User: Fold this.
Amino acid sequence: MKYKVSLVHCADIHLDAPFTGLGSAHLSNRRRRDLKETFEKIISAVISKNADYLVISGDLYEHQYVSGSTIHWLNDQFKMLEGTQVIIIPGNHDPYVANSWYRSFSWSSNVHILTTACPEYLHEANGVYFYGIGFDTFRQESLPVMKPPSVNPERINIALFHGTLDLAFTQSPYNPIDLNTLLDLGMDYYALGHFHGKKDIHQAKGVVNAGSPEPLGFDEPGEHGAYWVTLEKENGSILRDIQFIQLQKRFYRELPLDISGCSSQVQMLQRLEQFDWERLKEDIIRVQFTGSLPLGVQVDLASAREFLERKCFHAELIDLTRPAYDLELLAADNNIAGVFIRTMQERLMKADDEEKPVLEKALELGLDALLRGQVEL
Ligand SMILES: [Mn+2]
Assistant:
């Protein structure tokens, strides 16, 4: 027998996530809309590629925050897929709890939710078998006890899994599993979810973590999207074609900016101008000001914020600048700072490699206390 099917694999969409970190209701609303627009791109990809399946490996929505209207919108998206079967497992943010929308809502007939009690979906006509390991509760410190998969090597066998793969933790509340245990299931493709960075963990063995199609925070930099997968099986041997499709609306980017020597707001803004803002205009940016500034000069965060608000979707500012102390000049003074510097410099001369950085830090912090009246650790 020969079977050939195609699917779009995604995970961790987190519909209606609160995005409280953005600091304004307007921006968090906009980001919730972004999640929907990115999901609509997944639906468009399924339609344009005429995929047989849409596979969603958990955390489709946030149970605690999702609204009824979002669920209706979601189901309308699934209805648009007509001939495509949608296979879903609940994740740790949308677990199969008693009041889950997966239980109570009347989903479109092409939607199949795989649960601990009913983990299988067999699509006989296509020779495809799905088996899902998801979440019944918000935390699961060990894998749920469930019926093992019924793998028939003639068919195409696909596992959906949401949880932590191969982490060194001895205990993880999120379905801990190691790669060998997973591979022992004997599947042809492992559609993983939970880690928000994309990872084609073992493409050669068909193990792929989709990542979140839209990044959700600064800890999720880089490209985000979904996978377009074609699986072909003939006489028990599998051929896989696995391709990443980038879909995200925005990037989270950290931009370190050395503003050493800037003595005015104008100079600081000139340094900010150097970035390619046209390329970054839809992005969420974190600017880290570094370097040393002349004594008495401080980063003008308000002006920088005003500048950045016009240049990108949202910016966070972090001031890591240090005052540039003229040690030679200050040491010549006959005051407490002068005495302190001379004492520390004498000690530094005699210090070994281990002690030196400690003394240098002590000198810096001591001068902060004496000259600026504040110490930031
Ligand atoms: Mn997630």
Q: What stands out?
A: DSSP finds ten helices and 17 strands in the chain.
